[in-house]
Amino acid sequence: MRALFLIVLFAGLCYASSDSNQENIETLMDNVLVLRVPHSLSTSVYVPLSCGEAYQNQPVVWKKNGEEIEPALQGNQVKVLVEEMNGGNYTCHLGPDGEYLNHTVILIQLDPDNRTVILEEFPGEGPGHIYCSAPNYNGSFHCTWRRSATRANAAVLLVKAERNSEKMSCELDADGSGILCKDANCPYKEEQHRVSITVYIHSYSRLEAYTRTFYLREIVRPEKLPNLRITDGKVFSWNYPESWEMPCTYFGLQYQVKVVQKGFSCHSKKKIMSETIEKMTYEVNIKPNKYVFCVRAQDKYTNGPYSHWSHCIVDKHTEVC
User: Fold this and answer.
1) Alpha helices by DSSP H, the chain
2) Tens-binned pLDDT, residue by residue, of the chain (321 aa)
3) H or E segment at 320?
4) Torsion of Cα atoms, 234 then 235 then 241 then 247, to 10°
5) Facing residues of 39 across strands?
6) Beta bridge partners of 320
7) How many CA atoms lie less than 13 Å away from 261 in the CB half-sphere?
8) Which of 60, 171, 178, 310 is surrounded by the fewest CB atoms within 10 Å?
9) Which of 246, 257, 247 is closest to 307 using CA atoms?
10) From the CB of residue 131, how many other CB atoms can be counted at a distance below 10 Å?
């Protein structure tokens, strides 16, 4: 009875392979198959491969990651046994030492895909592994991600960007850690649907997919306020960011002004005063003559992300902006 129990337990912990598992195999893109396997289970799945219809009657020989397979795997259509996370690049050749004909990369994705290890979460920017921002409403936005230290060589395989099933034009950053996209919608058009960004990134044979959805208005972050200056020793003024849309009556900004003690940063919670205004000037009327004046901008209609701080350091009769 105990032996029977162990056999049943082992069967429950294993994910046996058969033709019925084909629904767990998906073509992600040309020459790339994704095998979804249950998390925490031992897996062994046969994956069908085809070199191509043009090579049906040719002496096709397969290799894995450039190495010959033992015993030899021959034929235009074959099945390869994929165990655990042991995927790879399967190439087919015309004979054992013949020319390269085609290839298929098999990647493994855990199901559910919620135990991610390739990318790190962004601290302080809300939950998620993808951070997106835009300097205005012209439709261009930039998304970034950070690889974990143990997966520094992970490579981006594919990025999908769309809104309401309409694909967006995107360009991957040179270092593979971000993407610049352009939404063709007019900046004056009311957003009815969210933007969806999905990043497929792999480390060896492990594939992970990360998704971020947002309205453009949620990620618009004005650029740092330029030309911050002081007159009469206490009146501060600044300009609109050059990248911000006009007219200002439609794309309005509001400003958080803050005064902190000299020697503290604008992020300090030890403030002397703080206020939100709509004018681009502010007069400081405080007794201390050593302080830091800080100002940043925010879309006043959406209450989206603030710009980075601009600041001036005041030390009695000396001002540095």
Assistant:
1) 2-13, 216-219
2) 333 333 333 333 334 444 445 668 999 999 999 999 988 778 889 999 999 999 998 999 999 999 999 999 999 999 999 998 999 999 999 988 889 999 999 999 998 877 789 999 987 666 689 999 999 988 899 999 999 999 999 999 999 999 999 999 999 999 999 999 998 876 667 788 999 999 999 999 999 999 999 999 899 999 999 999 999 888 999 999 999 877 666 788 999 999 999 989 999 988 899 999 999 999 999 888 899 999 999 999 888 899 999 999 998 878 888
3) strand 318-320
4) 160
5) none
6) 313
7) 3
8) 171
9) 257
10) 17
Largest CA distance in the chain: 93
How far apart CA 227 and CA 237 sit, in angstroms, is: 8
Q: In this structure, what DSSP letter does residue 260 have?
A: E
| Residue recorded with tokens 């998304």 | 143
Nearest 5°: the CA angle 77, 80, 81 is 155
Token pair recorded at residue 73: 């795997």
Exposure b/e, 2-31, CB count within 10 A at least 16 = b = eeeeeeeeeeeeeeebeeebeebbeebeee
**pLDDT tens per residue across span 83-128:** 989 999 999 999 888 899 999 999 999 988 777 899 999 876 666 8
- pLDDT given for residue 232 in this prediction: 87
Residue in this structure with the two tokens 């165990």, named with its chain if needed: 83
